[in-house]
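Field reference: sequence -> structure
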Amino acid sequence: MPYARYGESLESVEAAIAALPAGVTREGLQGLLPAWAARNAVDCALWDREAKRTGRAAWQLAGLAAPRPLVAQMPPPSATPSRVCPPTMAPPTR
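Structure field:
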């Protein structure tokens, strides 16, 4: 996703990707584009392509430990902010 605050647009990202040399690698990509939307898109695609080509997961290719489930606790829908995080002190007075 291009970020306007970095001067990016869909057109600038497409142009940056189109200007890459054929056969660019993940390693080579790092020096060709700044760490913004275009590089992120191509980097993700290169990881995905290598994972599919080798039949291995991206975390394996990166030499990382297998991902584990993450348990997140959400308050029940009936919880209001004051019930979830009761105030610990009175609001400041002016």
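Note: Residues 77 and 93 are 32 Å apart (CA to CA).
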